[in-house]
Amino acid sequence: MVPIAAKRPAPILTLPRVLDCGCCLIGGVTFVEFPCQNVSLSAGSFCIIPKNQWPASNLRSVARTYFSEQPPFAVSPSLFVLQPGEATVVEVVFFPTTAERSCQVFTIVCDNCQVKDISIEGEGQQIAFELVSVSGKKEPPVVGEVHDLTAEHFVRFSPCNPHSVQQKRLIIRNNVHLDLPFHWQIMTPNLHPFLPGEIPEPSHIQFHLAADDVFHVSPITGVLTPFQDQEFLFTFCPKELKDYHSVCHLVLMEVPQLPPQPTDKSVLQPVRTGSKVGDVIVMEIEVKGSTEPYQVLLEPYAVVIPGEIFICSTTRRQFKMWNHSKTCIFFQWERISNSSHIIEVEPSAGSIEENECFDFDLVLSGGKPERVVTSLVCSIKHCPEPVTLAVEVSFKGPIVTVSVPSVEFGLMKLGEQTQTTLLLTNITQQEANWTLKERCDRQQDHQEIQISVEPRTGVLSPLASCSVDVLFSPHLCQRYETELVLTVENGTGCHLSVQADVQCPQVCLLNCELLFSELYLGVAAEGTVTIFNQTLLPSHFSWMDQLQGKQAELCSASFDPSSGSLGPNACLEITVHFISHTDLDLTEVAALCEVQGMNSPLVVGITASKTKKLSVSYSLPSVCSPPDDERPSTLLLDFCDDVILNRAVTKQLLITNQTAIPAPFHIEADYFTCHASKPNNQSEKRMTYVKKPLHYVQAQKIEEKALKEFVSSLLANGKGAAFFVLPDTGMLGAFETQTVDVTAYTDMWGEYRDHLICKVGDLKPTLIPMQMTVTGCPLYFQITGPRPDNQNQGPKTQFGTHVSGGDTVSRSHRIHNPTMFDIRLDWETYNIDQNDHKLVDVVVAYGDTFPVKDADGNEVLNGALRISGGSAQTAWEGNKTSGSEGTSSPLCSMTSGEAKEYVSEEEETCLYPSPAKKKLLSVHIRPHVGDLSDYPYCITPQQLVIPAKSSSTIHVSFTPLTGSGCESRCVGLALGFMGLDSEMAACVPGKVVRAQGLDLEPVRIDLLAVVKPSLLLVQIEEDEGVLEFYASAGDLLKAESELVVREFDTTRAFQLRNNSEMLLHFSLGTQPPFKVVKQQLEVRTSSSSDPPTGDSQALVLHPQQSMQVKVAFHCSLPLLDHADQAEEEVPPGVTLIHRAGEGRKLRFQQNLLIHYNDNRLQTVPLCACLYLPTMRLSRDSIDFGFCFVGQTLITEVNLHRNRALTYWKSVIESDEGDSHVFRVTPDFGLLRSKELNVTSCSHCLQISFTPSEDGVFRAVVVIQSPLMKTPPTLQLQGTGSFDKVYRSNSMSLKHHSRTITTCSP
């Protein structure tokens, strides 16, 4: 026997444990397929049987059929074989019979005796529908109303008109979890009457399709989705006037019938493959609707047009149509159109909404005159009866009108023709044949025809017009009257009256002679004559230009008006302007006037007496007119003695014409002439180029510029003054007094004299003398510009505040000379003392007060003068160059020569100026202005010539005073005395003379400066005003590769501020151990930085600015030696301070010195504290006692230090050579604190004793430091022994615990 054992892996199927078949209507069948795959590595045979049939002895006997059935489920195949990876489909049939959820369990048995249970679930459902809502108004059936026997729901449509459409929306809900196909059927209602409580018999219920086709349902067919609302549209479209009644059936298609009751043998029956299905009515909805006729109303129902209307013209009348129907109506109007008339409605077709009206126009157009009574028919769509509108109207024929009721030709002159135009208008819509002619009795005799019509006949189109010309040609003077007849075919004519008055012209003079008693030669005299028109006819007259008679050539005349027309019976005055060209009496002169239409002219006789000549007088406004025998030369135009320079002064002169003879006049100055247009004209020309209106300030500037240019053009001749006459020319009228403005313009001082030359007509020129004295200064400074009110005042020059003994400060001033003369200025400077009580200065000069000097300041002698071209000129004047405006020109000088005599008469000699003779001595008394001095103020150059139309520059310098210990004010002034080196500039004999030097008010410049001592504001953070430094000597030690001693600096900073208004120069100085750090100094208020500074380096600090100064305390090892020196050996400023608990420190006190350039000195206190290192041991000696040889005893000692950190090193010394038995741990270190601001700390040292033999050992521990000359020491002693008694106590003894002591700084 060989035992055999085998094992096969179980097959694995993917079939889920629960098979859900979903929902199915009861009586129906649902087939559901489920995939099944063998995912194992072994094959198997499977059998599906109901759970209640397992276990079974023989599977094949159980699975006899293809289906394994357990109602209401059946599974196929009941037996199948699957190889590894092979799949099949398991089909489940679900056939519910009740509306409930079913579940059955089936067993899957494998041939390897493995069993698996699966559950099959499904739900049977019954049909269920619900009517959710109906749109619109809900109208239930009324009591006693007939309705369908089986209908479940009722829907009523509102009454409407035929062929209208009404709709309602119904929502039906499917309460089943299945898709149900449906369709609708419109059926006739079952209207069998019932008694209350009676049940209808099935024979009474019949199903017939409705035949009227007025109710519709949309959609008519479809599928109802599970548990969803479906919307249906019910439409009512009636065709006739009656009530409609139907029933809408909702029919479900292919609904299964309920199965028969199951029997016991049904289990053995095979599975049903299908059930009987059919259509089922699930909902009946009863619908009703009714119709009403159309309600249409006309307003008004008839149109009657009163009166008559013209044929061929269109007339409109309005009416309305109301729609009171239930729906919109569509209308169509008929049209009456024949050969005679047209009657229609606009618009002819359209629609009218419910309960609305529509406006129509009834259009009528007649073709012939008659009365029309008719009716218009309007058809309404779907309405059997039309709507009619009654119309009644009367038409009449054409009418032609004339533009005027009569023709009036008015007054006419015999021999002339006149014509008028008549406008004929056809105001109707038809053609009009017309004829216009004179009455028959006037056309009998062709010789007497005086009126004609063109055209005489014609045809007028509808609403057209035409013109007819009527021409009248009279043959004699008469009162003409006639008639014109207008005839219209088939219309109404009219008559026009025609009138005319024919006459001849006749004019006469009311006065025939003119007498002129006072005449002036060449001046027109006026006289008047009157002409009269004796008829109603306008008469045209014309005066002859040429006079008639023997003396006609000695005179001339003009007439105003010279020609014209006279109205009917009108008078007209004619103005006669008569001019006599002789001084004889005129008696034989006549003037002729021609009248059109008269055979002979009108004649006027003229008589004139002798003529007079021109006569003119002169006067001033404040003086009465001079008598005839007074000479005009006695008048004087005096512009006063206080005329301000550059300020115009105007005087007036009156010129009176004592005759009626107008004459031209011309006025100008004799010497100081000028030629320029009015300043207003120039400004007006400029304003023409300005497109936009100017601001007031802009316009004022333009006016000022124009005036300045105008004055410059007047003074362009270089004489210093000009007399501008306005008007300088013109016409002096008859007996007119002309006011002449004489304006004096000046740009140089002096006494001026001149004549005003007046020329009128042919009279001899008249000379009127003028005089004025001009004072002021023509020069001005560029910094201030011209000062019209204070011309001699220059700029107030302020030099500000300066340091005493500082550098000289200079100010430049440019002086402009706008005149045509070279002006010399001699400058003097004065100091003003407030305690000076002088009132006047007496200035005595020998010769010239301000003689001409050369470039070196030496006076130019008179012998150096030379005469050139009639004027005195120095030898250096020819070398004068036209340098730039920034440099002053060389001085020029000219001697006084003898002036030529321009006036010979004695009285005129005293009136007009002559050159002044030179004075040997001159004395001037003037108000005291100050002390003459050139310190501290000075002007260079002291003498300069400012060229004409140019400028020069002077330099005003100020040298600050020295030696002043407090602030002082320096008040001064500079006077510039004006002079003229040119003789022609100084005097023009008989015209102008100009004062110079002290005789003139000088140019004044006020000077002011302030001198202050040097001082800076020191800003230190400390309140005591001392710059303090703190350092520790321990910082000298630097731990690098090895411990080294390095010097270091402690730096502090403070601010220096210049609160003054002057620039300060200074340097900084210190002594060791302090020093000024050489670094970039910051200036707070300036963007630029000062150069690096240090000890004794010059610095500059601008006004109101600050700089930062850094001072360093230099710490070095030699400074520590001061701690051990005797008191008398310690340098000044060094102090040793020792306080308990803080250790020792050295205090260094010095001053930072600020050296100013005026030798002033300012100090800043400096103080530095250097903390010295101090070390001590907590014990002075240690006695270890007895210790077993070879063993070690350890004790601890604290090493303390105060304030300064320090480096230490322990050294064990012994005179007996016992140092090897003692040991210090650690033997070196840096003594510092780990905490900030700690004034003291300690370090724990372990002292060990290891005896090497029996005996006593002694040694000394020395704590050495490079910063301390006296180190602390520790005495050590111990005894070695072999006695075992000390062996147990030799482990470790600590006599002192390690402590750290801290305290506040």
From TrEMBL:
<protein>
    <submittedName>
        <fullName>DLEC1 cilia and flagella associated protein</fullName>
    </submittedName>
</protein>
<dbReference type="GO" id="GO:0005929">
    <property type="term" value="C:cilium"/>
</dbReference>
<dbReference type="InterPro" id="IPR013783">
    <property type="entry name" value="Ig-like_fold"/>
</dbReference>
<dbReference type="InterPro" id="IPR033304">
    <property type="entry name" value="DLEC1"/>
</dbReference>
<feature type="domain" description="HYDIN/VesB/CFA65-like Ig-like">
    <location>
        <begin position="398"/>
        <end position="500"/>
    </location>
</feature>
<dbReference type="Pfam" id="PF23316">
    <property type="entry name" value="Ig_DLEC1_6th"/>
</dbReference>
<keyword id="KW-0963">Cytoplasm</keyword>
<dbReference type="GO" id="GO:0005737">
    <property type="term" value="C:cytoplasm"/>
</dbReference>
<feature type="region of interest" description="Disordered">
    <location>
        <begin position="788"/>
        <end position="811"/>
    </location>
</feature>
<feature type="region of interest" description="Disordered">
    <location>
        <begin position="874"/>
        <end position="893"/>
    </location>
</feature>
<dbReference type="InterPro" id="IPR053879">
    <property type="entry name" value="HYDIN_VesB_CFA65-like_Ig"/>
</dbReference>
<dbReference type="Pfam" id="PF22544">
    <property type="entry name" value="HYDIN_VesB_CFA65-like_Ig"/>
</dbReference>
<dbReference type="GO" id="GO:0008285">
    <property type="term" value="P:negative regulation of cell population proliferation"/>
</dbReference>
<feature type="compositionally biased region" description="Polar residues">
    <location>
        <begin position="789"/>
        <end position="801"/>
    </location>
</feature>
<dbReference type="GO" id="GO:0015631">
    <property type="term" value="F:tubulin binding"/>
</dbReference>
<keyword id="KW-0969">Cilium</keyword>
<keyword id="KW-0966">Cell projection</keyword>
